[in-house]
């Protein structure tokens, strides 16, 4: 018989990726009692367990800047006390834990959120499960930072899965690192639109020829460690990240591709002749699943026009339309990286974090209300930190002032964040 427990808190954050971490830390820093739940054994999601190479894109988030500053203090060698967008996942895991501990958050690792606790349209918390048994966690405010919006979906919040026209989703990736790279000669290609000519041919074209479909591109990134390179080169298409069988399938597909990718690197890419796999992610990278219907839906037009909303709670968000090819490798025809034209940054309104019909629930991270194309921009991790910071600030206002989330003003939220 499974033991069942009950907990009560002000704010419950589900998921500890960059957005969930930011939400929990911010809410706790502002006086709320916070529990944060994470299914993995480490905090950070894709930024740590997913072996993400670097912070891509940017955001006018004070917390993001604090993470960069404090990461620099932990770096060693060439990057000691040097602010960089390169991520050392092991050091970042520790930094996240230290910051959550400083803020007074209760952290529950190795714990899955399995269902929403509801009273009609009011979300009262969530049921979680771990080796100790099931726990019903009741919260004044629940923040869904699961990426896929598992609890919001369980509560009945309306969503669109993937691309609006056909529900197709961006491919999945398993990141990995190779060692033995000669940095003096190594080639680093950071986007699908980056090319490099060699005596044997252009590297992106050679990747398409020599790495089996649906992989077939080269994306290589520097790390903070000598001779180590992060590879974003595996690819699994037609994967539904809300389906456990598909997550298993994607992991198998991507792992099978790694040997062929290493063979390609050794044969064709300067500096990689003696490279070898040193580590791989323990978390498959899922780019896109549910887009929830909020009180406002952010569009690609809003981003291209750099729209400033009256109720903005995220500012100076900047990235491109990073739509990975839904039917194969490389950039989708709807994407734009170096050819992305808008360089001013944009804002995200508070309404995008509020599900249209559910109370006491905040959307957080890549599951906020936005179109398929807009999502390909705001899913970047620095922007997700800005979203999480806003969610945590709004939750703390709601709790401490004993008001509903719809009564929290964007101005109050911005004041707490400092933007």
Descriptors for this entry?
single chain; 419 residues; alpha/beta; FAD/NAD(P)-binding domain; 2 domains; seven-stranded mixed β-sheet
Q: Structural class of the helix and strand makeup?
A: alpha/beta
Number of strands: 17
Helix content: 25-40%
Q: What is the CA-based Rg, rounded? A: 21 Å
Tell me the β content: 15-25%
Average pLDDT, to the nearest integer? 97
Protein described:
The protein is of the alpha/beta class and 419 residues long. It has 2 domains: 4-163 and 290-322 and 335-417, 3-Layer(bba) Sandwich (FAD/NAD(P)-binding domain); 176-280. 28% of the residues lie in helices and 20% in strands. It contains 10 helices and 17 strands. It has helices at residues 18-29, 62-74, 89-103, 150-154, 203-210, 244-268, 300-304, 372-378, 381-400, 410-417, and strands spanning 4-14, 34-37, 106-108, 112-119, 122-130, 133-144, 159-161, 176-179, 197-198, 201-202, 220-222, 229-231, 276-280, 290-292, 312-317, 346-349, 361-363. The strands form 5 sheets. Strands 1, 2, 3, 4, 5, 6 and 17 form a 7-stranded mixed beta sheet that branches. Helix 1 (18-29) packs parallel to helix 9 (381-400), helix 5 (203-210) crosses helix 6 (244-268) and helix 9 packs across helix 10. The longest helix is centred in the middle third of the chain and has 25 residues, at 244-268. It is globular. The N and C termini lie far apart (50 Å). The mean pLDDT is 97.
């Amino acid at each position: 018989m499974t033991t069942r427990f009950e907990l009560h808190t002000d704010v419950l954050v589900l998921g500890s990726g960059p957005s969930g971490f930011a939400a929990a830390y911010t809410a706790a820093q502002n006086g709320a009692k916070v529990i944060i739940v994470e299914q993995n054994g480490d905090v950070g999601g894709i930024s740590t367990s997913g072996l993400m190479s670097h912070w891509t894109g940017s955001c006018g988030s004070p917390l993001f800047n604090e993470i960069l500053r404090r990461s620099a203090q932990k770096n060693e060698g060439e990057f000691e006390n040097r602010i960089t967008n390169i991520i050392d996942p092991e050091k970042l895991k520790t930094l996240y834990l230290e910051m959550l501990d400083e803020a007074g958050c209760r952290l529950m690792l190795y714990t899955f959120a399995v269902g929403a606790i509801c009273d009609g349209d009011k979300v009262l918390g969530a049921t979680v499960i771990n080796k100790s048994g099931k726990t019903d966690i009741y919260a004044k405010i629940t923040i869904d930072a699961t990426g896929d919006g598992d609890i919001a979906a369980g509560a009945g919040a309306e969503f669109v899965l993937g691309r609006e026209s056909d529900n197709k989703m961006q491919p999945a990736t398993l990141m990995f690192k190779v060692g033995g790279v000669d940095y003096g000669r190594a080639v680093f290609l950071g986007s699908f639109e980056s090319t490099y000519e060699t005596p044997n041919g252009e590297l992106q074209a050679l990747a398409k020829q020599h790495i089996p479909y649906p992989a077939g591109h080269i994306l290589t990134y520097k790390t903070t460690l000598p001779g180590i390179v992060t590879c974003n080169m595996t690819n699994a298409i037609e994967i539904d990240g809300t389906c456990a069988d598909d997550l298993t399938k994607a992991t198998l597909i991507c792992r099978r591709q790694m040997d062929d990718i290493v063979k390609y690197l050794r044969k064709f890419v300067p500096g990689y002749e003696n490279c070898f796999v040193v580590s791989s992610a323990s978390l498959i990278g899922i780019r896109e699943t549910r887009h929830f219907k909020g009180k406002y839906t952010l569009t690609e037009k809003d981003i291209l026009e750099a729209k400033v909303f009256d109720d903005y709670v995220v500012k100076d968000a900047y990235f491109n339309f990073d739509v990975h090819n839904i039917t194969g490798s490389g950039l989708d025809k709807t994407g734009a990286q170096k050819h992305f034209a808008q360089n001013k940054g944009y804002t995200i309104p508070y309404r995008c974090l509020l599900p249209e019909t559910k109370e006491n629930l905040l959307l957080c991270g890549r599951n906020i209300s936005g179109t398929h194309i807009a999502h390909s921009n705001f899913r970047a991790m620095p922007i997700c930190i800005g979203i999480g910071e806003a969610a945590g600030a709004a939750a703390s206002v709601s709790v401490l002032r004993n008001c509903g989330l719809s009564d929290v003003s964007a101005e109050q939220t911005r004041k707490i964040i400092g933007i």
